[in-house]
């Protein structure tokens, strides 16, 4: 019965996406750990953290799509939630180093010893426990999103003004984390990680496990977002996106609905950041850069906002392209990225997934008035909802 209720809350395409992701979570580590080097299907070790990074970026893009594609909230500050989750995990990883650091201090991280800290700051207490770090990963970004969203949405700040405020928020955090006396490593950030849950973070098996965990988190995020947008709440979110004043006039608590979506999106972004850090091996204030948030918008637009599937495709494809492009022409990547965004805006305004969806609709036979193949569950809301122009 519970299984039936879960699948009724999902669109058929969401079930397929989750199934594929779970298969990938098993297949990629298998190709890396089990298949020998001479096998053509073998994946080299260096690819595991790189693929894991792409998956965390895809999760971040999915988080943005929940608020932008379905609620009409163009956030230019989602990198802040991603980075906060990363710093929380980085603090745990720094506490695991112990006396193996350069200065051999069993309590203070190396950068604190270098800056003549005498005692561990109070906000670092508890990060020697993994469960505490996981709690902070969810709690702090969720609390920040809740306070920020409460003040912004209750003041009815919308449109470009809200986008500017979110960008100002992440820029303020960037400046704060750059300070050496802020207690987070300043410009250098947190790095030189050794272990996670007692396992060597550089070990082949650990990297494969982190990749699998990233894919599973992405699958859970797809489940959560699809459950929301395929519910009656999801229909109201789309109504807010398309006609907020009219939805408010009908009696819906628009502020509360937008706040809920914003907090859920921030938590998903933070969890993605927490998985990003152990695979990349560093977290510094550069992750708060407003340019990073703008890149997330580009990933979502390229894949197709308001589709859930599109941001995943866009996040992986654009970042894979970035890796290849910067390897050949590193000085021209930003020009290529800007050109890509312009081309997508002009010729693929609905993104890759949205364009493919429309092409299939034109080729499919005309549906009868009673047939509703895209609908599922009690609400009947599709996974791919066309965003307003």
What does this structure look like?
The chain has 389 residues and is mainly alpha-helical. The protein has one domain. Helices cover 65% and strands 2% of the residues. The protein contains 15 helices and four strands. A hairpin with a 2-residue loop joins strand 2 and strand 3. The two termini are 40 Å apart. 42% of the residues are buried.
Summarize the structure.
With 389 residues, this protein is an all-alpha fold. It has 15 helices and four strands.
Helices and strands, with pairings:
Elements: H1 2-8, H2 12-33, H3 47-71, H4 78-95, H5 110-114, H6 130-154, H7 159-178, E1 190-191, E2 195-196, E3 199-200, H8 204-229, H9 232-242, H10 244-249, H11 254-280, E4 282-283, H12 290-303, H13 309-328, H14 333-347, H15 351-363
Helix pairs in contact: 2-8, 3-8, 3-9, 3-11, 3-12, 3-13, 4-6, 4-11, 6-11, 8-11, 12-13, 12-14, 12-15, 13-15
Give the helix tally. Answer: 15
Helix content: 55-70%
Mean pLDDT: 89
* Computed CA radius of gyration, to the nearest angstrom: 22 Å
How many strand units? 4
**Low-pLDDT ranges:** 1-7, 367-385
Largest sheet: 2 strands, antiparallel
* Run of helices and strands: HHHHHHHEEEHHHHEHHHH
Note the main attributes of this structure.
single chain; 4 strands; two-stranded antiparallel sheet; mainly alpha; 389 residues
């Amino acid at each position: 019965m519970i299984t039936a209720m879960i699948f009724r809350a999902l669109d058929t395409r969401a079930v397929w996406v989750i199934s594929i992701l779970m298969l990938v979570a098993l297949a990629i580590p298998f190709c890396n750990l089990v298949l020998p080097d001479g096998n053509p299907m073998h994946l080299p070790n260096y690819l595991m953290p790189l693929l894991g990074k792409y998956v965390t970026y895809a999760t971040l893009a999915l988080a943005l799509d929940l608020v932008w594609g379905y609620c009409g909230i163009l956030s230019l500050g989602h990198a802040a939630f991603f980075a906060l989750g990363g710093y929380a995990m980085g603090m745990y990883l720094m506490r695991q180093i112990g006396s193996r650091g350069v200065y051999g201090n069993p309590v203070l991280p190396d950068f604190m010893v270098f800056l003549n800290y005498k005692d561990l700051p109070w906000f670092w207490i508890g990060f020697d426990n993994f469960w505490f770090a996981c709690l902070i990963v969810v709690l702090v970004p969720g609390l920040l999103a809740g306070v920020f969203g409460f003040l912004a949405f209750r003041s009815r700040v919308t449109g470009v003004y809200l986008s500017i405020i979110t960008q100002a928020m992440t820029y303020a955090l960037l400046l704060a984390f750059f300070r050496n006396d802020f207690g987070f490593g300043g410009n250098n950030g947190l790095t030189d990680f050794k272990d996670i849950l007692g396992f060597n973070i550089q070990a082949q098996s650990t990297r494969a496990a982190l990749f699998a965990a990233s894919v599973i988190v992405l699958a859970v995020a797809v489940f959560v977002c699809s459950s929301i947008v395929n519910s009656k709440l999801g229909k109201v979110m789309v109504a807010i996106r398309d006609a907020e004043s009219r939805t408010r006039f009908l009696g819906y608590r628009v502020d509360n609905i937008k706040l809920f979506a914003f907090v859920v999106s921030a938590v998903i972004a933070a969890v993605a950041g927490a998985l990003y850090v152990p695979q990349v091996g560093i977290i510094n204030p550069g992750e708060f850069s407003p340019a990073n948030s703008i890149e997330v918008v580009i990933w979502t637009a390229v894949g197709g906002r308001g589709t859930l599937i599109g941001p995943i495709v866009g996040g992986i494809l654009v970042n894979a392209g970035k890796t290849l492009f910067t390897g050949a022409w590193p000085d021209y990547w930003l020009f290529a990225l800007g050109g890509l965004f312009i081309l997508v805006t002009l010729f693929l305004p609905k993104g890759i997934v949205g364009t493919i969806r429309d092409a299939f609709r034109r080729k499919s036979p005309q549906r009868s008035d009673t047939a509703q193949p895209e609908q599922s569950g009690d609400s009947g809301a599709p996974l791919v909802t066309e965003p307003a122009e």
